[in-house]
Design brief:
Layout lengths: L4 H6 L7 E4 L3 E5 L7 E7 L14 H17 L7 E4 L15 E5 L9
Antiparallel strand pairs: 1-2, 2-3, 3-5, 4-5
């Protein structure tokens, strides 16, 4: 089975601007930003999407959310606020089948999204 785009970024086979990484997650700049700050944070473990996560993924998913908040703070988004987005499937806009959280901020967000 071939690697996803995100697995290739994690393996440094494709260049990307990494803003955070540890043993469980990697955060990098989105190549098509939708706001002044747009970073993706992904688990190193290739989970296709949230609907396919298993009970044993609970620890890495919780870690990903906590680190998303830390990355947002590091990027200066804490005081003004930011949005965390998970897309699940093609109708939601999922383009890469590797679970990822968009950290989006640096501008006023509208509601409803999309």
């Amino acid at each position: 089975m071939s690697k996803t785009l995100f697995e290739k970024i994690i393996a440094r086979e494709i260049p990307s601007t990494i803003v955070y990484e540890d043993d469980s997650v990697v955060a990098f700049q989105d190549v098509k930003p939708q706001a002044p700050t747009h970073v993706l944070i992904v688990p190193r473990k290739p989970i296709p999407r949230i609907a396919e996560a298993k009970p044993e993924d609970q620890q890495v998913l919780g870690h990903l959310l906590l680190k998303a908040a830390e990355v947002a703070d590091k990027l200066g988004l804490k005081s003004g606020g930011y949005r965390l987005v998970f897309n699940n499937g093609p109708d939601a806009g999922e383009a890469v089948p590797h679970l990822h959280c968009h950290i989006i901020g640096g501008r006023q967000m509208s509601w409803p999204p999309g």
